[in-house]
Every structure is written in C-alpha cells, then in structure tokens.
Write a structure and sequence with these properties.
By secondary structure, this protein is α+β, with helices and mostly antiparallel strands. The protein has a single domain, classed as Helix Hairpins (Orthogonal Bundle). The protein is 56% helix and 14% strand. It contains two helices and two strands. It has a two-stranded antiparallel ribbon with strand order 1-2. A hairpin with a 5-residue loop joins β1 and β2. α1 runs antiparallel to α2. The chain is rod-shaped. Keywords: Coiled coil, Cytoplasm, Exonuclease, Hydrolase, Nuclease. Heterooligomer composed of large and small subunits. Bidirectionally degrades single-stranded DNA into large acid-insoluble oligonucleotides, which are then degraded further into small acid-soluble oligonucleotides. It catalyses: Exonucleolytic cleavage in either 5'- to 3'- or 3'- to 5'-direction to yield nucleoside 5'-phosphates. It is an enzyme of class 3 (hydrolase).
C-alpha cells in the first residue's frame, strides 16, 4: 500500500519503488474503484517526483573540457538536458 512519506520528500529510489507498487496494484485490479482513483492520483504525483529528480540530476551532469593539447582543462555544466 501507499507510504506515509510525503511525495515531495521522497528520494528518486523511494518514489520509483512506490510507483512500481502502485502500477502493479492497478494492473492487477486488486483494489476497489475508489481506492484505485486514489492510487492513480498518488501514482501521478510519484511519476512527477521521479521526473523532477531525474531533471535535477541531469542538470548536475558535467562534461570535461579539453585544452588545445587534448588535456582535461576543467568541467563545464551540460546544457540542454
């Protein structure tokens, strides 16, 4: 069942694990309609959380810049992700 942890406080791994549980429950049809709606709503929040955490991680990815001799010269934040 759903965790008591607010979605906004979950790590990517926590949100993904719970999202997998929610999807499994909905696919198996093991919950009544009212509970299915609540699960679907929580699943949507979990999906959004996972997407945000991935976007945050992508923004932190850095590329190594090389100087004229092909030697590492530093790091540059990757843009456009």
């Amino acid at each position: 069942m759903s965790s008591d942890t607010p979605v906004e406080e979950m790590s990517f791994e926590q949100a993904m694990a719970e999202l997998e549980q929610v999807v499994g429950q909905l696919e198996r049809g093991e919950v009544p309609l009212d509970q299915s709606i609540a699960l679907y709503e929580r699943g949507a929040k979990l999906k959004a959380r996972c997407e945000k955490k991935l976007k945050d991680a992508e923004e932190k990815v850095a590329a190594i810049t090389l100087d004229a001799n092909g030697e590492p010269a530093g790091l540059k934040t990757v843009e456009g992700l």
